[in-house]
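At this stage, I put together one protein's amino acid sequence and its backbone structure tokens, which the following lines show:
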Amino acid sequence: MRTLPDGRRQISWRMWVLVFVAPVLMLAAAAFFALQSLIVVSSYQRTEGEVVRVYDWEGWNPLDGETRDYSPVFRYEFAPGDMTEASTGQSSPNWNFEIGSRHTILFDPAQKTDVKLPGFEQLWALPVTIGVLGAILVVPALLAAAALLRWKRRGREARA
């Protein structure tokens, strides 16, 4: 930001980047993770998996503090006659499933990788959380942009 000798005020492009970088990056990340979840929902196959193991360990999160986290391993039929095992690749205090219990899972038919649980927690919690934070950050960015434009306009008014 600078004021020229004739009283006009200029705002550098760097200032606009500083104002909008956080909300734009957050909203872009939310869109990226939402797209990943849409790909999972549209291209993964739905099947039923049997819990064969549940790994557990002590965890922590900002809402609950200390927790017990669980990561179930499912046995499922990857292809006709081809049973395989895979975990979700994530953990949650909500996934303390009984050994032998059966749950709907999603798996990538192109490769034996992690499976997904078809619920909000694994598919949509991250993009929604990041999207909400990005939307919240838009408010101060817009206020800062309005303040910058007001500052620039006052330079023109002082000249007139």
